[in-house]
Amino acid sequence: MNKIKLLREKNNIRQNEIAQFLNISACNYYKKETGDLRFSLIEAKKLSDYFGLTIEELFFTNKVSENETTFQETG
């Protein structure tokens, strides 16, 4: 589950309320919240301000994916 959905549910905010705040349809908001569409930078900034977080805190994680590796010098 993504951070936006967790924050929205924790604060008892409905999807259509956030959609209205962003001035987009509820359907588009749902697609963005589930990851089918991406939030624009302007929308990301509005959401980060709304929840009192930075864009990085809201949209990024500190986890390292399995595909990321640490560079190691050889030789």
UniProtKB/TrEMBL annotation:
Q: Does the record carry DNA-binding as a key word?
A: yes
Entry keyword annotation includes ATP-binding: no
Keywords attached to this entry: DNA-binding
Organism, as annotated:
Sedimentibacter acidaminivorans
Supply the PROSITE patterns for this chain. Answer: HTH_CROC1
Full protein name: DNA-binding XRE family transcriptional regulator
Location of the HTH cro/C1-type domain: 4-58
Instruction: Classify the source by domain of life.
Output: Bacteria
InterPro entries annotated for this entry? Cro/C1-type_HTH, Lambda_DNA-bd_dom_sf
GO MF terms, alphabetically ordered: DNA binding
PANTHER family per the record? DNA-BIDING PHAGE PROTEIN, TRACRIPTIONAL REGULATORY PROTEIN-RELATED-RELATED
